[in-house]
Structure formats: C-alpha cells, structure tokens
Amino acid sequence: MRVAVFGDVHGNRFALEAVVQDMERHAPDAWVNLGDQVFGGADPAGVWQLQQDLKARHEVLEVRGNTDERLGQPLTETTEKREMLAWLHGVLPEGTGTYVAGLPTSVTLMSGEVLAAHGSPDSAWTYLLLDGKAWASDDLVQERLGDTGAARVVVVGHSHQEHLRQLGPLTVVNVGAVSRQKDGSPLARWVLLEREQGAWSVTFRRVPYDVEAAARWAEQYAHKGAQEAAHLRQGKASK
Fold it and tell me: What is the number of domains present in the chain?
C-alpha cells in the first residue's frame, strides 16, 4: 500500500503541478493533503482548482492548516494579515475560506495505522516536532500527540522542515512543504509512505519546478508580490 502525503502548498500552482505529476508516477493508493492550501501568491485560485480536480480523481483526504483557519475568519480592522486575506478572498471562489477552515485537524487512514495532521492532532497551530527553533524532545512530542490509537505512522506539516522521528513503534514524519521553503532550496517536497509485509517505509521526495514562472506570476498579480517572489526564488524568507 502506498500513501502520498503533501501539504503547505501556500497558493503555489507551479510547485503543486510538479508535485502532483511526481506523485502520480508512484501510483499511490491514498492521498493526503496536510493543509495551508491557498495562503500564498503564485496563483492560489489555480491551486484551488487543481486540488478540486485531485479530490475528484483520487478522493484526497484533507486536514486544515493554520492559514486555512485564517481564511475562515471575518475581516475586521484588527484582523491579522487583513490585506493578504482580502486579496485572497477576491481571487478565490466564494466559500473557499469557509470550506478550508471547516476541515478537521486530523484524519486517520489505512485502518487507523496512519494519522495525519497539519500541526498536532488537535491544533493546526502547534508545532509537533519543534520547541522554539530547536527540535522538540521525545517526551514533548509524545505529550503533544496524546493518544494515537492504532497509528503506526504520524505525518504532519506546518514547520516546512523535513524530519523523521522514531518513538518506539511509532514513526513520526514532517513531510516538508510544497512551497515557501526555509532551507535555501526552492525544491517542492512531499512524502511517500509504503506498507509492505506489515512494515511502513518513508521516502522523502524533492521535486524541481519552474520557480521563475511562479515568481513572475507573484510579481505581476499577488499581494506583496515582490516579497513572495523573493521567497520562492531564494527558498527562504528574506530577513
């Protein structure tokens, strides 16, 4: 059995198209989207449409990310990131924010053996594997996980950092991000889980895409497009 896991697309259609092509080559039996779907500036409306097509073809399971929650908030004068949210509401189909904000914080699949969340199972905002800027201790990770039931593998996103942790029989994976990288490489990321003879294996995938095309789209159309473009080109946010 194969499971394709991706997340933190952050409105980058160009990166998602390349990741989808790579995932489909591996013919997964199940697909999981870890959230933070459209909060970004490289054609978020195109990302939304592509993800709807994926759901129709592959029945993709989805959880909500922290920026998905932001999209569901009413806009007021004090709303954080209000200008970005207003721009997104203007380019995305009506109801997008309500939909993504209403997704669950976690899902299980493969008879409960795989547990997927954006941050932690009960919060889209909690970094499961980080403690500040350092990796969290095993004890802290276990505390944040709580009762994982029959899970053998836990997959999360949110931090945009690939990571694998073994906690006794439980494998914990941060899949990295499709877009808005933090390590200086703009390559898009996803993870392939494979179950064979009762054992789960984890493969981290990195995929090149047309970064320059994404950056030019952002510069031409996005809110704070120059900033978005610089992040995409550099593979990390500008200081």
Answer: 1
